[in-house]
Amino acid sequence: MATITECRTALDRLSDSLARADGDVRGAAALDRTLSCHITDLDATFTGRLADGRILVESTADGPPPAKAQIRLAMTGDDLLAMVDGRLNFAKAWASGRVRLEAGFRDLLRLRSLL
User: Fold this and answer.
1) Whole-structure pTM value
2) 73 burial class (0-12, 13-18, 19+ CB within 10 angstroms)?
3) Helices (H), 21-104
4) Which residues of 60-71 are buried (b: 16+ CB within 10 A; e: fewer)?
5) Burial class (CB in 10 A: 0-12, 13-18, 19+), 29
6) What is the spatial distance between Cα 72 and Cα 102, in angstroms, rounded to a whole number?
7) Which of 11, 26, 30, 54 has the maximal Cβ count within 10 Å?
8) Each residue of 68-86: pLDDT tens digit?
9) Rg (CA), the chain
């Protein structure tokens, strides 16, 4: 089972990947939205922002998200690590229910290029 430290490192790696992206991916990541990522098996939530093409983690809290972010993710720590490492396809994980993504309709349309 992944640790909080490993999950935080994975989010930082994902942020770095988004910052290096170009084209449609860069455009989708250029949103300025609040973000939460609930790690279900650890019952911990990272909160922050998706801004300027990066994920900026501002805090970590025990339990589910303390407030409703504009973009909300939920998954196990192992699934987060597998996605960032390229071993788990986000779209397939989302379609099968392993990963939950909640956002407004317009944001989902922009984020689809990340899938």
Assistant:
1) 0.89
2) buried
3) 23-29, 77-85, 90-96
4) beeeebeeebbb
5) buried
6) 5
7) 11
8) 999 999 999 999 999 999 9
9) 13
Amino acid type, 32 = D
Structure tokens at 80: 């987060």
Q: Would you call 9 exposed, middle or buried from its count of C-beta atoms within 10 A (0-12, 13-18, 19+)? A: middle
- Cα dihedral 18, 76, 64, 57, rounded to 10, equals -30
pLDDT tens column, 23-63: 665 565 668 999 999 999 999 999 999 988 889 999 999 99
CB 63 within 8 A of CB 43: yes
Half-sphere exposure of 93 (CA within 13 A, CB side): 21
The strand pairing partners of 54, in sequence order, are 51
